[in-house]
Amino acid sequence: xxxxxxxxxxxxxxxxxxxxxxxxxxxxxxxxxxxxxxxxxxxxxxxxxxxxxxxxxxxxxxxxxxxxxxxxxxxxxxxxxxxxxxxxxxxxxxxxxxxxxxxxxxxxxxxxxxxxxxxxxxxxxxxxxxxxxxxxxxxxxxxxxxxxxxxxxxxxxxxxxxxxxxxxxxxxxxxxxxxxxxxxxxxxxxxxxxxxxxxxxxxxxxxxxxxxxxxxx
Length: 217
Ligand code: G3P
Known about the structure:
Order of helices and strands: EHEHHEHEHEHEHHEHEHH
Radius of gyration: 20 Å
Strand order of the largest sheet: 1-2-3-4-5-6-7-8
Distance between the termini: 37 Å
Number of helices: 11
Structural class: alpha/beta
Bound molecules: SN-glycerol-3-phosphate
Low-confidence stretches: none
């Protein structure tokens, strides 16, 4: 499963990239606003950290303007992926940009039918929002399962990019049901390594080693 970092924090992205845990980055207007930086500048900086897809979201709501914005965003770097909302205008823009060879990420997906439309429109990625479904007591992982089955039934090449991931169980469950990609905040990615028995076992190893009085170097 590919790991994308859902953030515009360059230090956090670089830290994870140095470990080999960054296959791409996703942003959205809220993440960009939180960065406090100029949109195009922060996307350009992220694209210098990773060669993987970097999702930059359009802010227009009419297809023709979405296409214009997408073409503008693509000028920033070769690995910019144009993020489009799952509306009829967003799907039309997805069809146009995809036919031009532009990587697209159709976002704000909350139903299998929406994901089916995105695949038919040639989306590179579909972003189903797990956490926001869970927030209203629906089952976000079930959506990933349904999309996986639909895409496999017809051989759609659109990659399932599980988004709105809030905890380590979301990551596990996405891997179990076959999401192609998961995008998560740096804090969630880092917490995947945590386990109290690992900490306890390492402490015991080091205590016993210390008692030998030896050193490796
Ligand atoms: O990539 C989409 C993601 O940023 C949304 O996450 O936690 O705001 O639902 P969240």
